[in-house]
Design brief:
The structure is a homodimer of 254-residue chains. With 254 residues, chain A is α+β, with helices and mostly antiparallel strands. Chain A folds into two domains: 2-173, Nucleoside Triphosphate Pyrophosphohydrolase; 185-248, Orthogonal Bundle (Arc Repressor Mutant, subunit A), CATH 1.10.10. Helix content of chain A is 33%, strand content 27%. The first copy, chain A, has helices spanning 2-10, 56-68, 92-103, 156-173, 187-198, 204-213, 239-248, and strands at 12-26, 29-37, 43-44, 47-51, 74-81, 117-124, 138-145, 185-186, 217-223, 233-237. In chain A, strands 1, 2, 3, 4, 5, 6 and 7 form a seven-stranded mixed beta sheet that branches. Chain A has a three-stranded antiparallel beta sheet with strand order 8-10-9. The A-B interface holds A 13-16, 50, 52-57, 59, 77, 79-84, 115, 117, 119 and B 13-16, 50, 52-57, 59, 77, 79-84, 115, 117, 119. Chain B binds a DNA duplex (30 and 30 nucleotides) through helix 6.
DNA sequence: TTTTCTTTGTGTAAAATTTACGCATTGAAA
DNA sequence: TTTCAATGCGTAAATTTTACACAAAGAAAA
């Protein structure tokens, strides 16, 4: 294992990292996937390094796949973090110390703990499709409600903040939902997604009118049953039309 | 010189480059600043590397300063280019060959020609304030009309394209002009700037109404004299209000 | 000197978009 | 069987955006 690790890092760019803010949506809450580092109480975003024969975008996709099992997912670069000191919470020395207890003295020397810039990506994934998987480096991988995210390692809190800003910018020009919601969903569910991301309320009649005007939704003949009160219709995204709307753009003007 | 160069690169991140798309505006045309590499007919964007004790943003500002003499200028990161092979126009081998003729065999070994990702920044500067300055590496530095930009080294044509896209996105939410126009300017000049960036025409009455609604412009008692036909009023940006508008954002809705 | 002609300065009406809101219907829960 | 919160659908008001006309300035032409 240790040997493989060294091999891996020999094949990567050392001064460049990739970190992914993976957003999910469940029970009306926006969530991010975080990893807990072995031997510490420190959490971080899933990240990694770029293989020498791999583009940054491919690397981000690989990392997303490793952590969630999902490919072909909406994934977008949003900012590159290039501060001189990106350690918060723990200093570099403190973190190193803790990790050496778990992984052995000198194990990380020259591998991770040098100055790196990190390219931030955010991804939108379908909550139910993800089986969060820790790796050799971490002993836990799970969803956190955005509001409950603790103080993270490095500058990862800032990364999440900026990713959310980028997502909010994104949702104003592109449709959102294809990767965040299950295949079939109701209009109130879609509305709640938008309301959660933008942290405000919309009039449901105007919301429906606007979203339908994008011509990306297919209204099904089914209704969600067993739910309280009047059962709402189910909708599904028309994949082709959705993709076309991603290219041409839409104006979420509410 | 050669020794200083090596010293410099010893103090920088080697796998990360910074490239700046520096936009200027003159005579109704949008321009970018390009450098011609010694011993080649290849042009590129001004760029450089990050010093070990310097943030990426500081590095971009330093590069901008080195090339234009300007500081405190609007400068924004817009994308990080991470393709495996970023050589176009010339291949890595061809470029190396040409440069070795000028700079001597082996001079660049291990310094520049390894795989790097590049963080792209775009800057908006006041054309008249800039005295383009080539460096030891280049023998010419000058403005190019955006439409006339030739095939550039590396992926720099793509960088300019994406920078323009980012600028067009930017202008929809933030006021533009403070750094691109001289201190005093006329409303038609400001309008031409917007028209050039967005590559479309606006009704001058609606344009004036909208821009004045931002409450960032100060109408002066002077007029531009000596110009053909009716002399237009001069305006100037209110720096404080302009900066406030940059923070709160504006909606350029035309 | 006078006339011409392009450019600028200003205001108002029409069109389109966005927002506000009413009421009937459904179906689980009381 | 009744209640009641949530859903489905449509219309009016408010706001924003777009379209457009005419007078005035001043350099250039006659």
């Amino acid at each position: 294992m240790e040997h493989n690790l060294r091999d891996y890092f020999e094949k990567t760019l050392k001064e460049v990292a990739i970190d992914c803010v993976i957003f999910g949506f469940h029970a009306g809450e926006l969530k991010v996937l975080l990893l807990k580092w072995k031997g510490t109480d420190g959490w971080s975003l899933p990240g990694g390094h770029i293989l020498l024969d791999e583009s940054a975008n491919d690397a981000a996709n690989r990392i997303l796949m490793e952590r969630t099992g999902l490919g072909e997912i909406f994934l977008q670069q949003y900012y590159t973090f290039g501060a001189v000191n990106r350690y918060t919470h723990y200093s570099e020395a403190e973190l190193l110390e803790k990790l050496e207890i778990t992984f052995g003295k000198g194990f990380f020397e020259g591998i991770i703990f040098r100055r790196t810039v990190s390219i931030g990506y955010f991804a939108l994934v379908e909550f139910d499709q993800v089986s969060p998987a820790p790796d050799w480096f971490t002993d836990e991988c799970r969803w956190w409600n955005l509001a409950d995210v603790p103080a993270l390692l490095f500058d990862h809190n800032e990364m999440i903040e900026r990713a959310l800003t980028a997502l909010r910018q994104h949702i104003r020009n592109q449709p959102v939902g294809y990767n965040l919601l299950p295949e079939k969903f109701t209009m109130p569910e879609l509305q709640r997604l938008y309301e959660t991301i933008l942290d405000r309320q919309f009039d449901r009649r105007n919301f429906q009118k606007l979203l339908m005007s994008y011509d990306i939704l297919e209204k099904l003949d089914e209704k969600r049953v067993g739910v309280a009160n009047k059962s709402p219709f189910l909708y599904r995204f028309d994949k082709l039309k959705y993709e076309r709307a991603m290219e041409t753009g839409v104006a979420f003007s509410m």
